[in-house]
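Form 12-C: Joint structure prediction
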Amino acid sequence: MAEQKPTYYITTPIYYPSGKLHIGNSYTTIACDAEARFKRLMGYDVFYLTGTDEHGLKIEQKAEKLGMKPQEYVDQMAAQIKELWKKLEITNDKFIRTTDDYHEKAVQKIFQQLLDQGDIYKGKYTGWYSVDDEEYFTESQLAEVYRDEDGNVIGGKAPSGHEVQLVEEESYFFKMSKYANWLMNYYKEHPDFIEPQSRMNEMINNFLKPGLEDLAVTRTSFNWGVKVPSDPKHVVYVWIDALSNYITALGYGSDDDSLFKKYWPADVHMVGKEIVRFHTIYWPIMLHALGLPLPKHIIGHGWLTMRDGKMSKSKGNVIYPETLVDRYGLDATRYYLLRAMPFGNDGVFSPEDFVDKVNYDLANDLGNLLNRTVAMINKYQNGKLVGTNDATTDFDADLEQTASDVIAEYKELMDKTRFAEALATVWKLVSRANKYIDETEPWVLAKDDSKKDVLSDVMTHLAKSLWIIAALIQPIMPHAPKQIVEQLGIEGTDLSLTDLQFNDFPAEAQVVAKGTPIFPRLDVKAEVEFIKSKMTANEKKKGRKAMAEAKEKAQETAQEEKTDGKKPIRIDVFDKVELKVAQITAADHVEGADKLLKFHMDDGTEEGRQILSGIAKWYPDPSVLVGKKVLIVANLKPRKMRGELSQGMLLSAEKDGNVQVVTVPDNLVPGMGVE
Ligand code: MSP
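Section 2 - Result
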């Protein structure tokens, strides 16, 4: 009997089909695709799931606006999204839609079971509801409130900036509170359940410690959703419906649950940071209440942002993947997205960076390595690879060692979905091989007939390196590996990663094709302009105007300060100060220093930073600041105080001797620059 392959189940979030997907949403799908391809090449039996989250008020309203039935609207959008995934060569094994009949039925069963066993109960819900966010907010969570003359709150804005309205409705609630302790223990026993680790701390400090509230899981205010079987004026609210997709897609709650038996629990749910909470609190509790095992890892990735912050249509800084793929090819697009996003943190897209990475990494480093190698094999050996014989150069051992180190490191990093680092590792081999050409100087060897064997050894070493590189980039770039091995005349060779080794190179005496560059060099100016022109033009102007206004204001402020007796500073001086949003992840007293507190902050970088501040007097219990989003001066020269390093300054406001840390609204993300 054939040996059973180990299974691997990976999922993306299911996307709201409320608009065209941009490179930000596409990132998650490409990242999961790279992981799925990697695991397949490592010999796993992979199940890769993606899909669409099609219910809810927002979709209902959107369809109405377009004069369509909700079903018609989501059909059209789901088709569009499937088309996009085809273009990006996503290798998902299934595409689930929450309007699929089997899913709706399974959700009803799940709901009924939770109701029957007392985990769901009926109550009343009052809250500020944002239609756009499909989320309720408490008054204190609102970013802005409107009041009447008597000071009563009559409306406001959600942290996203969307309007909210007061809604009171009968609702079913999930008893989340009952499971809070269990979940806390589960986290303790499974320290790698949430990655990166900092997100687990965030969940504990911001949600579990303050106490979990029961979650409203049905609505009566709209129709477009799965009906509660025993009380059909209620529709199951989006998170129970949406989260269940990960199991219903495998047949849980349906007649044939063989896939569920085979693949559950999932190995990885990959999600963006703003939905980590739903996946690491509500979802585990739901599964536990259903008596099901939990997914092994929830990986929260950062956002792909633009220089002026979050990608959004209203800001006019949106880039669609089609724009990049049509002009620069799929490989360049996938490479860029995975290379630009550091694990767990935000990545910034800029047209300049995109063009640079394509030019440096792909056209120069990898492209040239291939072109030079193919050209030399053609020129010096009539297009034939003739094996190594016994000749060697002084540089062979180091190249071979680099290759084997890179293979090992790469596998480890890919296993942990650290794509940017895995690619950086592969490029170590690209650089090493380029250097090997300079060291061995084949053009000198070619002049000396007695060095023929050495030259042949050099050519084979280069071909081997390229073969290894081709194998390693397969999960990320669907086309280049094939083009590389074709040009080297070693098409059809085994590129599986399970047992990839430098000296297993299969080819001898192969004919090398005449090479054409697989990554043409881009004209920086023209292409930066092109990409910029694709970002919604009029909105871009708005951005510039806002920036100009902000600078003008800063200048005015500087002027005003003059009258304050302070020396005014020029705008370019102010511009040198790097202000950033950060989130306090830990706060403590500094031993032996009455005034000093030390804070650990998430500043958008993986390691975060420590900042000391002399505000102990006003914060005798500094833990009240944990979770707060604050402003820091990020480029202050680090200095030591009482043996502790302070890497920046925390901004506080002061009046009449009272000091308060300046906090910022919750929709700002650690690492954002402040202008
Ligand atoms: N429907 C919910 C998920 C339910 S899963 C049970 C949802 N959908 S979404 O369409 O709004 O977002 C889907 C994913 O796209 C999220 O993981 C989100 O973080 C990701 N992204 C949206 N914009 C993004 C960037 N700019 N950058 C990276 N990922 C981004 O939430």
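Section 3 - Comments
Residues 560-565 have pLDDT under 50 and may be disordered. The CA atoms of residues 377 and 459 lie 7 Å apart.
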